[in-house]
Design a protein that fits this description.
With about 250 residues, this protein is α/β, with parallel strands linked by helices. It has two domains: about 1-145, Response regulator (Rossmann fold), CATH 3.40.50; about 175-245, Arc Repressor Mutant, subunit A (Orthogonal Bundle), CATH 1.10.10.10. The chain is about 40% helix and about 20% strand. It has nine helices and eleven strands. The strands form three sheets. A five-stranded parallel sheet has the order 2-1-3-4-5, sandwiched between helices. A four-stranded antiparallel sheet has the order 6-7-8-9, covered by helices on one side. It is elongated and about 60 Å long. The termini are far apart.
Length: about 250
């Protein structure tokens, strides 16, 4: 019943507003990850009438594949998804360096759910049912960030926000997926400590059977591969890890 009411409101509101101003930067590309068929169809048609390009996915695993294949301007992400839930999709995407702005769109509206989503890497959060004008405004605000993201760089190390690869002086580094995820997380703010708990979430997203100490193994291996790059991975007891310039 809630979904039906939301769909009706969406259809009406978008129909009333579809002739308002367009984005001069060209068609915005949306990745819509929603498993409710009625909501999915209505949102896709409505946003396409507004001149946006919409790719639709109904499960989390497929959404990650689409996200990697063609990086969108904004991702609208439901949390309750088959195969891979929305938070796991988001955590994995961030771990891989996919920096696309994400708006979580879900029936889970508690403060705890919102905090969890934002801490996992979401940029915004809108509970269902929602006002379509507000949804559109938030999507366009996130979309204006496209083309403004700058690759993280430190001591010749650069993380590509689209591919997730890490380069050292222009050459791709030979890193495992977990080593690359850890390095990307630390490159966001070199010189600032990142808690082990947070790094664990990014390096081992959704892997509840992995021991917390596993992050130390990944850090050990990454530290060895950073030797000679000018960057050092430092352990701060009780705080986590950080990157800093190597000293002679």
């Amino acid at each position: 019943m809630v979904a039906a009411v939301a769909v009706k409101r969406l259809s009406t509101a978008l129909g009333e507003t579809r002739d308002r101003g367009a984005d001069n930067a060209g068609p915005m590309k949306l990745l819509l990850v929603e498993d409710n068929p009625a909501m999915q169809t209505t949102l896709q048609r409505s946003f396409e009438r507004r001149g946006m390009q919409v790719v639709v996915c109904g499960d989390g695993a497929r959404a990650l594949d689409r996200w990697r294949a063609s990086v969108p301007d904004v991702v609208l992400l439901d949390l309750s998804l088959p195969r891979l839930d929305g938070l796991s999709v988001l955590a994995q995407a961030r771990a891989e360096g996919l920096a696309t702005p994400v708006l979580i769109l879900t029936a889970r509206g508690t403060v705890g759910d919102r905090i969890l989503g934002l801490n996992t890497g979401a940029d915004d959060y809108l509970p269902k049912p929602f006002d379509l004008d507000e949804l559109e405004a938030r999507v366009r605000a996130l979309g204006r960030r496209r083309g403004t993201a700058v690759a993280a760089e430190f001591c010749g190390l650069r993380a590509d926000s689209d591919s997730g690869a890490v380069y050292q002086q222009g050459q791709a580094m030979e890193l495992s997926a977990r080593e690359a995820a850890l390095l990307r997380a630390l490159l966001v703010k070199p010189g600032h400590a990142v808690a082990k708990e947070r790094l664990f979430e990014l390096v081992f997203p959704g892997e509840a059977d992995v021991q917390a100490e596993a992050i130390e193994v990944v850090a050990y291996r990454l530290r060895k591969k950073l030797a000679g790059t000018g960057a050092a991975l430092v352990t701060l007891r009780g705080l986590g890890y950080l990157l800093k310039e190597e000293t002679a």
